[in-house]
Design goal:
331 residues, alpha/beta, two-stranded antiparallel ribbon
């Protein structure tokens, strides 16, 4: 645990078997809305730590803040979220971030009022995650120049914000199934390579920037990449990019500013919906569960489905291939 802003914050660390011999790279990974740190590893990604072991990465899974919502005991559920655009905005710089008939979500109590479009936490998650990265670098045998930030869904939105507001801490950023709302696209202070992976049939956070089935707007992957590179000439043209591992993945990727500190890769899984790339359809819960490691702190969450170690998950391989492609923090 880590005390920040008067709150005891929880996080989980995976150490691969090679830990202790050399300074290892470390990846920060944030769970999605309603999910948990252990649930996203075990159920959403079908065992992301298996690939961290293979590629030799320390993994850090922070837990967002959460609260109980619903009426009767049978209806109550744990609502977790990240403060990815700050303080429960109702509108963004480009106007409303949801439609007039958008689905209503429980408002985190610390926000006071969320308006029509707000649903995310209002706690200081940026400060918490900065403090967490500094603790990991200070306490563990890791390479401070090889810290990566990533996440899924709302966790990817938080990774998007962190990569811009604390870019000096990271070597690259990966956003899977999530991006900030229109008008909140950003340019990292320090140039960072970017990977985006999204399902072509994702209706929860559509890759093309169209309205989600819940009535919310999120920036398109193209808008994120354009702002990320801040008008760099190399970003004006893209070319096909084929991942080496896995070579037969059902994904199409385009790359701009290849092999540079401004590299931006946009991958679409044509038949994919809002789930971790390469996982089976039933693993679409967004991690609304915990493993035994976290049951004491989130006792009302369901228990996770155990990972299937026989199932290859190409999205996880793609994530670590991208990280290995950038083995040092940009200057």
């Amino acid at each position: 645990t880590l005390l920040h802003d008067g709150l005891e914050r929880e996080y989980f660390v995976f150490l691969p078997s090679g830990y202790g011999t050399d300074d290892l790279p470390v990846a920060l990974f944030m769970h999605g809305y309603g999910g948990s740190a252990t649930g996203t590893e075990a159920e959403v990604t079908n065992g992301l730590n298996r690939y961290a072991e293979e590629y030799g990465y320390v993994m850090v899974f922070p837990q967002s803040t959460w609260f109980m919502a619903g009426g009767s005991p049978q209806e109550r559920w744990e609502v977790s979220s990240w403060n990815h655009i700050s303080d429960g905005y109702d509108k963004g710089p480009e106007g409303p971030i949801c439609t007039a008939d958008a689905r209503s979500y429980p408002c985190p109590p610390e926000c006071g009022s969320c308006g029509e479009c707000g649903w995310a936490s209002c706690h200081d998650d940026v400060g918490f995650l900065i403090k967490l990265v500094r603790r990991i670098v200070a306490d563990l045998q890791v390479d401070p120049g090889r810290v990566y930030v990533s996440g899924f869904s709302n966790g990817a939105m938080m990774a998007n914000r962190m990569a811009c507001e604390a870019s000096e801490l990271f070597a690259a950023a990966a956003l899977v199934g999530g991006r900030v709302e229109p008008g909140f696209e950003c340019t990292p202070t320090n140039t960072l390579p970017l990977l985006q992976i999204n399902g072509g049939e994702d209706e929860d956070v559509p890759a093309d920037g169209s309205v989600s089935r819940a009535g919310f707007f999120y920036a398109s992957t193209a808008a994120i990449a354009a702002q990320w590179n801040d008008g760099a000439a190399c970003a004006e043209s893209t070319k096909e990019w084929a991942p080496q591992a896995p070579a037969d993945a059902p994904v199409r990727c385009r790359i701009a500013c290849a092999a540079s500190r401004r590299e931006s890769i946009d991958c679409i899984w044509p038949e994919g919906d809002h789930r971790w790339p390469g996982t089976q359809g039933f693993r679409g819960s967004n991690g609304y569960c915990v493993t035994g490691l976290q049951a004491h702190s989130m006792p009302e969450q369901a228990k996770c489905i155990a990972p299937d170690s026989d199932q290859e998950t190409w999205g996880s391989r793609l994530l670590f291939e991208f990280f290995d492609r950038h083995p040092g923090r940009p200057d």
